[in-house]
Amino acid sequence: MKLGKPLAWAWAWAFLLFIPVMWPGWASASAAAIAAVQLGRPPGPGDTGLVLAWGVGLLVLSLFILHVGVKIQRTLELINWPVVVLMILLVAVGTALGAPAFAWADVAKGIFIPSFPRGLDWFIVASAIAYMPAGFGFNMMLSSYARDKGWGMGAKVGYISAIIGGRKVKIGAEEVPFKLDEENLKRWKGWVNTARIDSWIVMSLLTFITVFLTSTLAYGLLVPRKLAPMGFACAVVQAQALSEVLGPAAWFIVLFGGFLMLFGTQFGLMDAVSRVITDNFWIASGKARSWSKEDPRRLYYLVLYLLFVVALILLVGMIGFGWASPYELTAIGACLGLFALVIAFPLQIVVNYKFLPKELKPSIVSTVILVIGTVWNLFFLVGLTVQVLTGVRL
């Protein structure tokens, strides 16, 4: 069974990843959040210059962050861990003090006894489904991070280094297999367990906790007041409602916590799309490696600079000329990427069973989880497609 030429897949993934992420919704939303913290009120039409200045500054800062470090992956770890911990603490404090008991009970009940509301806005829900698991192909970035950390045979392959503080490191374009003996298989299982801990505990559990807390806070503050704000207004209304409980400190807790979440997502996605596209072309094309002079940084920063320029143009158009709201563009990007997420899981199953040696194939449980994930994402993609094409909300 042949799945097509590697270069064709590299181009396909480049478009499937670049197009959803080129919209600077995260930078503009984080700019609006930090501007609101600065002003002590929601930014208005007269504050466009301030929000634009923050947006451009944060986009430039994101670019700078990705230029520093021996390993870019390590730079992101050093920045993201304090950001994630502080963000979770802010959200946890706000939720613990501001969310009423019924909100905790109802949200917890919804996890174990879910319901399906009629007239659901599939555009909103589908975008959330795509973004929450670092989806639409960005799960591939986790493989790239594992390699750059030196996990398993990744220590034999190389990594993507930065310009400032880094050096030229050649990344192998061919597989680096290991001898399938008892000792190596034991070590392999140890690395698999490490990857599972990183995936299930670090990524999945922290994401679940964050989603649960933010959902509980929003539900507890907005439902009693019969409010249903959209986009960035949701954070502002929550901050105002929480102020009734905690006082002025609530404004900072909600909006600065939102800023940390949004800004961290912006430079994280810029790195993710650049490294995944780089990895794909590095493996698929000898010409790409030759053009890069065996230095993956040349290809990585080419993609990164292109992404930055496109995002900067769109950012100025969004904020300066009112092309669209940050919320709309962020959701559009997610919905475009949901299609890629539907493709990624079946392809992973094919790779697992077609190319991996028998001793390294994942268990049937892993395959079942991938199948369930495919059906889950396809369900929301179908609902979104029906709504977009017919206007009908299932």
Overview of the molecule:
The protein has 394 residues and is mostly helical. It has one domain (6-390): Amino acid/polyamine transporter I (Up-down Bundle). The chain is 73% helix and 0% strand. The protein is built from 14 helices and no strands. It has helices at 6-21, 25-39, 48-65, 72-98, 101-112, 122-131, 139-149, 182-222, 233-246, 249-284, 286-291, 296-321, 326-354, 364-390. The protein is globular. The two termini are 38 Å apart.
**Overall pLDDT level:** 87
Any idea of the CATH topology?
Amino acid/polyamine transporter I
Class computed from helices, strands and strand pairing:
mainly alpha
- Total of DSSP H or I helical runs spanning 4+ residues: 14
Helix content: over 70%
Corresponding CATH architecture? Up-down Bundle
Q: Based on DSSP secondary structure assignment, what is the total number of beta strands?
A: 0
Please write the string of helix (H) and strand (E) elements: HHHHHHHHHHHHHH
Task: From the structure above, extract its key features.
mainly alpha; 14 helices; Amino acid/polyamine transporter I; single chain; 394 residues
What is the structure about, briefly put?
The protein has 394 residues and is an all-alpha fold. It is 73% helix and 0% strand. It has helices at 6-21, 25-39, 48-65, 72-98, 101-112, 122-131, 139-149, 182-222, 233-246, 249-284, 286-291, 296-321, 326-354, 364-390.
Layout of SSEs?
Blueprint: H1 6-21, H2 25-39, H3 48-65, H4 72-98, H5 101-112, H6 122-131, H7 139-149, H8 182-222, H9 233-246, H10 249-284, H11 286-291, H12 296-321, H13 326-354, H14 364-390
Helix pairs in contact: 1-10, 1-13, 2-3, 2-10, 2-13, 3-10, 3-12, 4-8, 4-10, 5-8, 6-13, 6-14, 8-9, 9-10, 10-12, 13-14
